[in-house]
Amino acid sequence: MKKTSLVLMMFCLISAIVFMPPSNRGWLSEFALIWGINDVKPLSYDHQNSQNLSDSGEIFSQNRSFDQIPLFSELSNQEELPTVARDDTLFVNLGEIADRLGFQVKVDARDGTITIRHQSDTLSMVQGIPVLNCNGIFEPMEQAPVIQNGNALVPLSFMDRVLQQQVVVIGKTAEWQVNPASIPVFAPKRNLPKMSAREMARYLSFLRSPIRGAHVSTHDSHLPGAPRTYRHGVHEGLDWYTYGTGVTISKRTPVYSLADGVVVRADVDYQEMTPAERNRLMAVAGQSDGQTPAYILDKMRGRQVWVQYGKGVMARFVHLSRIAPGIKAGQTIKAGQLIGYAGNSGTSDGVKGNDQGVHLHLDLLLYGEWFWDGYTVQERREILDKIFDK
């Protein structure tokens, strides 16, 4: 074949690809997959890192395997998906797709919270935290959501993993097939009946103490619900300090899992704030009449591990100095397994780099709710003593 003819054929082929409508490019994806071209790929998730717990404590996966993700050739009526690039990662503006998929998005930029409502489901997130609260059950996200100019941005993988939309990534762009009917119906949120202190202690009896040999603090100020001038006026969790718990608490004190569960957050790459950064956040919180924004509260908790347990229990292990090797979001964890070590990260002492004020702070939520407000101080102590001082 003459060189001129070959050049002309190549020009025609390239022109056909460039000007071809997206809906007719299915063969191109298959060609790319056959020949190992990586720029054309279906969006996928590592479903081994996205497990959850049933009420019985059984671990299950909510995500489809790779071979269930559609190839480009299987998509019909696909269109460009509006995305925002941040640090070489594609994000989706939830507000731009909400109407197409039939759900509502509420963004509270001041509090740093994002809420999605679809039929009977409520999904919530906090900016900067790579965790999704789905009807009171928590699971890890690939990356944390962002609030930018009042808009909620989530990683592109949210489209497939959570909303189950068929998405194909081509280089730095994405296309999708709009399908509101494919949004899953999640397990409904359980509304637990009002329980007496004895009943609540029995309900939580499968948990064990996170610090071996320690007992619940004898100081009421260390208990959930103790008065504070921040955090909405109350202390959210239970503190283990050296004084009041019967053991010495230091940065070498191991912290163990309360039961079998799934790690939904592990701040393995945590970097401590500077004093100036913390003071700036505290100044913002001080302008909120004690209603500290959720994203600032999270910063003040320092290095954390969150674990979703059975029966709707989610535990936040807070102010850790270190996280145990191998602990990562999405992995299953056994009762009594090492999570990390007590510390003071996120506190005024932590940002100064000293060893003062070292303790473990433990938050317990039931189906995403703080449940201690219905009990007196004595009843809270009764519940905690029966759970942890066995």
From TrEMBL:
Pfam families: Cu_amine_oxidN1, Peptidase_M23. One of its GO terms (molecular function) is metalloendopeptidase activity. Residues 243-364 form the M23ase beta-sheet core domain. Residues 82-172 form the Copper amine oxidase-like N-terminal domain. Gene3D superfamilies: Copper amine oxidase-like, N-terminal domain, Glucose Permease (Domain IIA). InterPro entries: Cell_wall_metabolism_enzyme, Cu_amine_oxidase-like_N, Dup_hybrid_motif, M23ase_b-sheet_dom, Mao_N_sf. It comes from the Bacteria. CDD domains: M23_peptidase. This is Peptidoglycan DD-metalloendopeptidase family protein.
